[in-house]
Design brief:
3 domains, Rossmann fold, single chain, Protein-Tyrosine Phosphatase, Chain A, 32% helix, UDP-N-acetylmuramoyl-L-alanine:D-glutamate ligase, 20% strand, alpha/beta, 21 strands
């Protein structure tokens, strides 16, 4: 794909609210394309990104509240670029393909144009933490390191600053991987953290979703590397589907062979390659707690070392890592109760992992939300055994989750139509040493704009609870414990694009 698009008419399908559509439109327009951005949402729902587009000072046409067929056929377009939130089978994309108009995504454009080897990281859960930690390790080695992708950071916006030896890390959603599969592209180092049920409302069942995740490494050459979770059957299957060298990682204590492994006792991370072994101390931060956190750390160091980073850079990345915003983020401690924001746990498996990471603590879980056709039984099982109380947010998946919890002897509170009500309910039964955990296991749509809006509403509700020193309990009679010595512990970090 040429880096110039002079005279080419490009339709960007889906403006999005996390910067992706704006980044693509800017990159194309700056390279001479005549750009049309089209989105089914009306202008008032896209005020922020539209203001960004206007601020670019570039001639970009917008079509909002509808799609026009002319923008997807040769009469009006030479190329269509779809936003990850646009389903792969959308009628207008089918129209473009039938008419012979190429369909791309930001990531297919980027991988063709990027002069440096790319580390691509995907998985049902843990991909943002793994990508951010890997980026920190590589940045300790080379400050030019680029971290972008499914975190609200346009990869194309960084392209001009990337040299052939610049370390590049991309977090990739399953929707972004679809573009790599369609165009037979793959990163030089592909990492699959794990694969479990998610986004089944967008795929033809779990097998289709899992195959898409594994597609990250499907078109690798023999000089590439596939960093795969040896303890996750679906991720591990990718080893038989790639021509790249397989680099395993896993949390089985004392596992033999090359790869990245958890040492007996769980407090050290071991890297073995070519008969040599390097041992790293495992950080104790909540973001890397439990088997899930250990696996993320192992995947990150395996990718960084495979890219060429020295062990000292891995140590620096591990030591300085404090977690990622919206992922097991400790936002405050109020009267001895810690409030943890794990809003990006939009799949049951992610919420289960959060509960496992907090084993040994009294946990007051806030869960529920919109349905993605996921099996909620594992979340109900984990909540029934690991949560002291469960408060439910309203949503299309919540009635089924409530029924599953009650069938297991639970008495969930709610459902609540807003975050302050859910936080007050969870905090009402909390005592010093407890954790109030937002880990919904469901999508956010309905009550919230997206999962990041849900996380921000949680932070706001906790701040209000801390400032007010009390409030009504779920039945309106019992005051929430007074606040004393509250301590902000939140960490800033990049955000995912939905």
């Amino acid at each position: 794909m040429a880096e110039r698009f002079d005279g080419r008419r490009v339709t960007v399908m889906g403006l999005g609210t996390r910067g992706g559509g704006v980044g693509v439109a800017r990159w194309l327009a700056e390279r001479g394309a005549t750009v049309t951005v089209t989105d089914l949402r009306p202008a008032e729902a896209l005020a922020g990104p539209l203001a960004e587009l206007d601020g670019l000072g570039l001639p970009v046409r917008t079509v909002l509240g509808r799609h026009e067929e002319t923008d997807f056929v040769p009469a009006g377009a030479d190329l269509v670029v779809r936003n990850p939130a646009v389903p792969r089978g959308a009628p207008m994309l089918a129209l473009a393909r039938r008419a012979g108009v190429p369909v791309e995504m930001e990531m297919s454009l980027f991988l063709r144009a990027c002069p440096a080897p790319v580390i691509g990281i995907t998985g049902t859960k843990g991909k943002t933490t793994t990508a951010t930690l890997c980026g920190a390790m590589l940045r300790a080695w080379d400050p030019r390191t680029v971290l972008a992708g499914n975190m609200g950071v346009s990869a194309l916006a960084h392209l001009d600053a990337i040299a052939p030896d610049t370390p590049v890390v991309l977090e990739l959603s399953s929707w972004q991987v679809e573009a790599l599969i369609e165009h037979r592209l793959a990163p030089a180092i592909g990492v699959i953290t794990n694969v479990s049920e998610d986004h089944l409302d967008r795929y033809d069942g779990f097998a289709d979703y899992a195959a898409t995740k594994r597609g990250l490494v499907r078109h690798q050459g023999s000089d590439a590397a596939a960093v795969l979770n040896a303890g996750d059957p679906e991720a591990w299957r990718a080893g038989a589907e790639t021509a790249g060298r397989v680099v395993p990682f896993g949390t089985t204590p004392g596992a033999a062979g090359d790869g990245a492994w958890l040492a007996p006792g769980g407090d050290r991370l071991v890297w073995r390659a070519g008969g040599e072994e390097v041992v790293f101390d495992r950080p104790t931060v909540p973001a890397l707690a439990g088997d899930h956190g250990a696996a993320n750390a192992l995947a990150a160091l395996a990718a960084a070392l495979a890219r060429g980073a020295p062990p000292a850079a891995v140590v620096a990345g591990l030591v300085g890592f404090g977690g990622v915003r919206d992922r097991m983020e400790s936002v405050a401690e109020v009267d001895g109760v810690v409030f943890v924001n794990d809003t990006t746990a939009t799949a049951p498996a992610a919420a289960v992992a959060a509960l496992h990471a907090l084993r040994g603590r009294r946990v007051h879980l806030i869960a529920g939300g919109s349905d993605k056709k996921s099996n909620l039984a594992p979340l109900a099982d984990a909540a029934a055994t690991a949560a002291t109380s469960v408060s439910l947010l309203d949503g299309t998946a919540t009635p089924a989750l409530e029924a599953l919890l009650r069938a297991r002897g639970g008495t969930p509170r709610g459902p609540f139509g807003d975050m302050p009500g859910a936080v007050a309910a969870a905090a009402a039964g909390a005592i010093p040493g407890d954790v109030v955990l937002l880990s919904p296991g469901c999508a956010s749509f309905g009550l919230f704009q997206d999962e990041f809006d849900r996380g921000e509403r949680f932070r706001q509700a906790v701040r209000a609870l801390a400032a007010g020193g009390g409030g009504a309990s779920p039945d309106g009679t019992m005051p929430v414990a007074a606040v004393s010595g509250q301590r902000e512990t939140g960490s800033e970090g990049p955000q995912d694009r939905p």
